[in-house]
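Schema walk-through. Below, the input block comes first and the output block second. Nothing else is stored per chain. Lengths vary across the set, and this one has 58 residues.
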Amino acid sequence: MGLVSFKDKDGNFGSAADVWNSERLEQLFNELNPNRKLRLEREKLAKEEVQEETQNEE
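--- output ---
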């Protein structure tokens, strides 16, 4: 499997890694799968609750 690349308007080669940074990928994933953002928020809240319970037990 090769690297994904493209030519810009000036004919220079660029890498998809230069364009698809983590922020743009996050936007793309959330756009393609709207439920993903909701799931990630639920998982984050559940993790925080577990941490709070663990701290309260100590």
